Amino acid sequence: MANTLNLGNGNWGVKKDSLLGYNSENGNFKPLAFNFDRASSATVVNKDGLIETVGSGEPRIDFKDDAKGALKLEPSRSNLITHSEDIESWATSGTITKTNNVHISPDGTQNAGTITSSASGFDRITQTISVSINSTYTASLFIKKEQTQTNYMGIGFIFTGGTTDVGYVIFDAINGVAVSADARIDVISEVKDFGDYWQLISTATDNGNNTSLQSNIYSTLSTNGTTTGAGISSPRTIWGIQLEQGSYATSYIPTQGSAVTRSAETANGAGDASTFNSQSGALFGEFKTDTDGGNFLISISEDNNNGGAVFIGADANEKIYTYYNSANHVSDINSYESLNKVCISWSSDGVKIYINGLSKNVLGSQALSTSNYNNIKLSRANTSLKFLGQIKDLRVYNTALTDAELAALTKI
User: Which is it for strands 188-195 and 51-54: parallel, antiparallel or unpaired?
Assistant: First the structure.
């Protein structure tokens, strides 16, 4: 198999404003770089499992879930919480004690704080934020798991300015699971393991026609997972509080006194006419996409020619999507739940599609593109529908692949 361009698979060439492709045949990085752009700093999980900040324009290779790393691409988001780590600056409701810099946080420094209360009910630290009406917001924070006592704490919202609603999710601090949720508004919860007894917890909800949002971190809800009962006096350790407009939590955005915005990321324009073969070739990717229902694509094309291009990625219903020369195939496989291996191969014999080791040959014989492919973009050919998510491995072949090669390449 003639692999002419490889991005990732453990071989990452990263520098400011640029992301190098790798030639697996010659064992070196090619001077055919993706033009990378992000007009702000951003955080990423490094090889040591710690959250670190990288500078403006520096591509992020995230090692949270895999030792080989994956390119992380996210939309622009703002952390509306003005003090994401300084919990002593937060307002309080009820009997509660706040202490900064008590424990080592997921970024490897002693900047995680604790909140403690011996009362019962909705004792909490709180911050009120102005919000847009009829929008979805996601709150997230890191919570240190407890090891010796079953304790519960919560994260929640109070919306004001229109109809007033309360939404909260209660978490088991030992097992790292949501045990109950308020049903008055739509609350979605997710828990992600960050190791060393840390867990990232997020909740998302639609604010209806309200104009302000009170983000609450509850220290004491109960000892039985409900909103009544005896208080809990043992400290709750928290760090990295975030509130963002959107339906899911993105990477952590630190703040120190004001809201902070992380800019969107793009990577386009790698390769040239000698890298690709419009008459016979293959495009392979191992990726998972974000979950906001957008179209997220990777393309090979001639400049901005969408019609004569090759696409892999996801459609608006978050399903694996492949496209060749104006014909497309939508799989029944979710594009965001886990990494998927997708390959589309084309030649005068027709178009072949394999996903996770299985043939999806529904396009059959297709007229070959008259384009002369000269670049690969992490977007649609015209740079719209940008890819958002994680790319672990991306390869271009300048000859078509056999069924046996396709099955082996995409096998999970």
Answer: unpaired
